[in-house]
Write a structure and sequence with these properties.
heterodimer; A: alpha+beta; four-stranded mixed sheet; B: alpha/beta; eight-stranded mixed sheet; seven-stranded parallel sheet; 15 strands; globular
């Protein structure tokens, strides 16, 4: 089982409601992470404003921050290797990296779209 | 005093800045100690003058007050606690991560929520740690946690998510994760608060419509989450015996009577005490012992010879002269609730319109009868109003319906509570205003509200992006501005800080200024409203109060403001064009 690590930008709440507008990506992504975890994926999230040491101690993330600055966040590492930067992964991305059944992914996606609000 | 009858172990005094919470809490603690009880007085007042009141250095440890047997005191500094928390988080990465990254983290942790949660963390020990407080019969707090903080702590999602796992979702509770106490302790603290046998909440207000409205809001909010045992104290009421034929004193008395008889029914049902306005500042044990008693004031001074405010102190009209020279721009009046932002915004707008300039006055005052009376009275003046409650509700609903649509029940409860944070209303109102702000390129736009520096910096998290555009556009020579740049440019935007000539309001205003400066905005002027000193009262009591103002006015003039104006307390409410103009020029009948 691969480990997925997400390094979030500095925010006081992961729903992003304290910002100018609630970021739909954050709300959707929170739901996707929840889904992937329920399907057995190993996912950890780090918030820059609450766990900055995690960023400082990770050579890959620290290097990206030094070269590009905060705009590089969010950063996704899979087993410590850079997988994605600058945006959040999709549910499909998570499923692929975690090796979760594609079938399960599709079912969940379908049910989410049936709800009519996330697509 | 009814709030002192059969007191439970914990007494909390709550109310907005400047109503006299700390003085009443001190007087209450002294009264209980004099009656033979052992009392701990806890102050979180940033202007903490508790040490000064008792003439002892107190600080963040339980200190016996030698002059009052049975009494000890403790000062908590929520700002300091929040700073300590920030240092704990940020300290280890300073110099390790790039500077702008570190700065971004610090800003995220500089909101009101962090301070509030840090203060609650300090309370928790006092409400639950029996070894710390075992020797005390009563613990008296000069402040109380807000409904928002307590509701967050009551949410099951808050605990199962972030705080226990230590990673994953964080809400406004994020700061608690960095604090060291255990879940069970926070839970016990919330339980102690909502137990009427243990806790009494005393709402402190002044006999003014605005503070009574706020008291009824606080009452409702805290009653809803179980703090049912509440008392009301109306402080600083001008007694009929002090009027002495002074027209200003009589007008104040009539206005206070009206405010009290118009207060919300929920407040009228609470046990009520009223404390008379005293001529003296509440410093020293003698003064404190007289606060809760109707005995005549000690050492009443002869006041006829008191030199009041010099006629040279600038008035509002002189500030408007300066504003008018630009021909257009945004004027924002900023300050705590109840200091008179809306009245002054209306006065500035009327004065500008009288000079033939085109003006749009926009207000968020919930009781905006003042703005309504102005609409259509002057040719160059348009008036609009935004209902903060309505826009905030719409914003919340919009977020929940769209972004929160596929969250589970727990996630939704969390999002709902995050949306009740004080930042949300500020953001929603400011968004509603932003369309009107754009008009300021052609005419004057006068607003009775402004976002705090913290909100602006958070909004400008998109600002990193703005700066990128600025760099790129700079090379092509195309002219444009972002809203943040508009607010930072003194040519386009003038922020006026409104305050009262009293210790706590001046201190709160200074904090607002520091917050704006953090966002690169330099307040253009300060306005001291409702000044007794500028109103030249005759009643000896009011003259004495007026003299107490002079020190605060001097502090504003010499330490805080680049320019300032003093506006007198008027005999009649400044409604309508003529009376607003009188406010400007200090022509008082």
């Amino acid at each position: 089982m691969k480990t997925i690590q997400i390094f979030d930008p500095a925010m006081c709440c992961s729903s992003g409601v304290c910002g100018v507008d609630v970021d739909q990506n954050l709300v959707t992504f929170a739901a996707d992470v929840d889904w992937a975890k329920q399907n057995g994926a190993q996912i950890e999230r780090f918030n820059l404003s609450q766990q900055p040491m995690a960023f400082a101690e990770n050579a890959v993330v620290k290097g990206l921050l030094e070269r590009t600055g905060q705009t590089v966040l969010p950063v996704t590492l899979v087993d410590g290797q850079l997988a994605l930067a600058g945006r959040y992964p999709s549910r499909d991305d998570l499923a692929r990296w975690a090796g979760v059944q594609a079938q399960a992914a599709e079912t969940a996606t379908a049910s989410c779209c049936a709800g009519g609000s996330c697509c | 005093m009814r709030f002192l009858e059969n007191p439970p172990r914990y007494l909390f005094f709550t109310g907005k800045g400047g109503v006299g919470k700390t003085s009443i809490a001190c007087a209450c603690a002294v009264e209980l100690a004099d009656a033979g009880k052992t009392v701990l007085l806890v102050s979180t007042d940033p202007a903490s003058n508790v040490g000064q009141v008792f003439n002892v250095a107190i600080g963040n440890k339980i200190t016996p007050i030698v002059t009052v047997p049975n009494l000890s005191a403790l000062e908590i500094d929520p700002q300091g606690a929040a700073q300590a928390y920030r240092d704990r988080i940020v300290g280890p990465v300073r110099g390790v991560l790039p500077d702008d990254v570190v700065k971004g983290i610090e800003e995220q942790l500089s909101g009101a929520c962090t301070t509030e949660i840090a203060a609650f963390d300090e309370f928790t020990g006092l409400l639950t740690d029996s070894t710390l407080t075992a020797g005390f019969d009563h613990i008296v707090f000069d402040t109380a946690p807000t409904g928002h903080t307590i509701r967050l702590l009551q949410l099951p999602g808050a605990w199962s998510g972030f705080l226990e796992a230590g990673k994953g979702d964080a809400s406004c509770l994020g700061p608690l994760a960095g604090l060291e106490k255990q879940r069970s302790q926070y839970k016990a603290a919330v339980q102690a608060l909502s137990d009427p046998a243990l806790t009494r909440l005393v709402l402190v207000a002044r006999a003014q419509a605005a503070t009574l409205r706020e008291a009824s809001r606080t009452h409702q909010e805290l009653a809803d989450i179980g703090l049912s045992q509440q008392y009301l104290v109306i402080n600083g009421v001008l007694s009929a015996s002090e009027l002495k034929g002074d027209p200003l004193a009589m007008a104040i008395h009539a206005r206070e009577d009206l405010a009290i008889s118009n207060m919300a029914p929920v407040l009228r049902d609470l046990p009520l005490d009223s404390i008379a306005l005293k001529p003296f500042n509440l410093v020293g044990l003698n003064a404190l012992r007289h606060l809760l008693n109707e005995a005549p004031a000690p050492d009443a001074l002869s006041t006829s010879s008191i030199e009041l405010i010099a006629p040279s102190a600038p008035n509002l009209s002189q500030l408007v002269d300066d504003i008018a020279t630009d021909g257009h721009g945004l004027v924002m009046l900023m300050g705590k609730g109840g200091v008179g932002k809306t009245t002054l915004a209306a006065a500035v707008a009327v004065e500008l319109a009288h000079r033939g300039l085109s003006v749009h006055l926009t207000t968020s005052d919930p009781a905006a009868h003042l703005a309504q009376t102005l609409d259509g009275t002057l040719e160059n003046l348009t008036v609009s109003r935004i209902d903060p409650h309505e826009v905030t509700e719409r914003y919340r609903k919009h977020v929940l319906d769209t972004k929160g649509a596929n969250l589970d029940a727990e996630g939704r409860a969390m999002l709902e509570e995050d949306l009740r944070s004080p930042c949300t209303e500020e953001i929603a109102v400011f968004q509603a205003f932003s369309r009107i702000i754009r008009e300021a390129g052609k005419k004057f736009v006068v607003m009775d509200t402004a976002p705090t520096g913290h909100t602006l910096l958070l909004l400008d998290a998109t600002g990193a992006y703005h700066r990128d555009i600025v760099r790129q556009m700079g090379e092509t020579g195309v002219h444009f501005t972002t809203p943040m740049m508009q607010l930072q440019d003194p040519k386009q935007t003038k922020v006026m800080i409104v305050t009262l000539a009293e210790t706590t309001p001046v201190l709160e205003a200074a904090n607002l200024q520091a917050d704006l400066r953090r966002a690169g905005i330099e307040p253009w002027a300060w306005v001291i409203n409702n000044s007794l000193a500028a109103a030249h009262p005759h009643s000896p009591l009011l003259r004495q109060r007026a003299r107490n103002e002079l020190r605060e006015i001097d502090a504003v003039a010499t330490q805080h403001a680049r320019r300032h104006a003093v506006v007198p307390l008027l005999t009649e409410e400044p409604v309508g064009v003529e009376r607003l103009r009188a406010l400007e020029n200090r022509k008082i009948s």
